[in-house]
Amino acid sequence: MIINIQNNGKILKEKTNLKLPDFTILTGENGSGKTQLLEYLRDYGAMNRMMNNFSDNNLISAISDNNGKILKDIIHSYPGVKRSDNLHFQQQHQQQLIQTIKDQWKKLKDIAKSCLLIRSESFNNEFDELQALNDARIEFQKSMTTENTKLDKAKFIYVQQYELNTLKLLSEQTSKEIYDLTLLDYITFYNVYNDLFSSALDVLFHQFNLKQKYFSHLTQNISAPWIVFNDILDKAEFKYTTKYTASLDDEEPTLIHLIDRESGMKVSFESLSSGEKTILALIFVLYNSSNNGKFPEVILFDEPDAHLHPSLTKLFLDVIKEVLVEKQNVKVILTTHSPSTIALAPEESIYRMDRTLGYPIKEDKDVAVQNLSSGLASISIENGNFGIIYNINQTNKHILFTEGITDKIILEIAWKKLYDSKEIPFFVQDSFSVNFLGALFNQGNLKPDGIFHQFPHKALIALFDFDNAGYCGWNRDEKFPSIIESNPSKCLTRSNNKNGYLLLLPVPSESNIRNLVIKNGQETFKEKSNLTIESLFLNVPGFAEKYFTIESLPGGGSFYSFKAKKRKFAENLEILESKYFENFKPLFEKIEFIISSHNFK
């Protein structure tokens, strides 16, 4: 699919012809604009539907397929797989949906019949039409009163615009005049919302059955919802199925139950877990009376896994990918904050909403999982420390901590290339993520388990990429108040005035790499910098084209975004000549200086 984003005055920035996979999983930090993007696409989809009488050339194409066809039939759901467009007619929890529909029709029926009073009139606009209808209803009621039963205008119930619009839409759907509409018509085309769960399934199936009987042209070449429902359950290897028997009473749907495949017992929807309900609720996105049982062109899921247990995540993703995307050609954008969702997602589907750029960019799966684990970092410190503490205890060397395993691999290769047989004077300890590393050092002064207290005789050095996450991990002026190196080319360095040090990658002199960090002289872009450890190899012949893409920045400028698999990239560096590792010399020199110039006893 292709999306075109316009500046919304908040986070979203203009970006045209942005190609995304048909199944895109969008991650990013809180406040990065994920929800804004989905709402933007939803709103422009609604605008395009309203402008349907115009040619496609006049429409704003917020989202299209790869052939340029504008996609207008868009469904947007918020956490828990609920529709975001439920504007009226809220269901009372204790009331069956079918009864709600009947109660609503009692009032609408009276309005529909009163449209006979103005059937021969024409109007310039909706306001004039509504005014004429209410005036006619008042005059009619006056004609039915006597001197003793005089009409009290204060008690007169006026028709509202949304009520008249509801009847107009139903008139179009049934090809009937408004005053000829019936309860059966209203039941058949009632707009069922995703959040009306078990009773909605009863009505949903019943609606399709009514369309088959009375509006058969609307169901031609369309699979019945109960067939699709079970097809999804079968493909997902879910433990429930269902059976549908058409009701003999057109005004009363058959009660639907799930059947446990193993026991054959009936199971109520209310007894399902929230995760099971989330999976089953996909049906309400697929088959909804508002779209006559057809699949939408686009579904925008805003954190559908919010109430989903990780054990059901793969099942959920498989249903979306295999049934929606691959079989029905639906375009899907799904936002998530769940590391397990990202870990189980297809690599090519993972994108990150970049707050600075204002649009999505490709993200490495490992990096996405690490970033989403930030909220777990402090919780994981205790367990994660077991391996780290063991490694520190096993070596007499000082410790250099990296954000991840690929950084460790790269640094060890770089040392070997630059210094050949010289023994590396420090031990490289990888962390689970940049956030874990930041939390580990931020808690380092806590007694008795902080690493600075456990190992006061060792230099403990944290190395961060000079990018958004890395700079935020480094910029801890309360716990690390002393800046002992202010030259970006020599590794900006903070100290806790004891044995803890925070380093940022050195900024090379090559202009294309230097421009990722340096604004002017030694002034940096700080948290808006874009220097990763992989970027230090940008000038290796062919690397920029093979491993990076150029991303535009709002207001001009660009930066290199790493697009390859980090582990494979790191391991392949073994074949490079030593001259391509020169950018690491300032880093190693800084580490050796720290180790040699301080007394850790």
Automatic annotation (TrEMBL):
Alphabetical list of Gene3D superfamilies matching this protein: P-loop containing nucleotide triphosphate hydrolases (3.40.50.300)
Family annotation (Pfam families): AAA_21
Alphabetical list of InterPro entries matching this protein: AAA+_ATPase, ATPase_AAA_core, Bact_Antivir_Def_Nuclease, P-loop_NTPase
Superkingdom in the source lineage: Bacteria
MF GO annotations: ATP binding; ATP hydrolysis activity
CDD domains the UniProt entry points to: ABC_ATPase (cd00267)
Protein name: AAA+ ATPase domain-containing protein
Domain AAA+ ATPase, residue spans: 20-363
SUPFAM superfamilies: P-loop containing nucleoside triphosphate hydrolases (SSF52540)
Organism: Epilithonimonas lactis
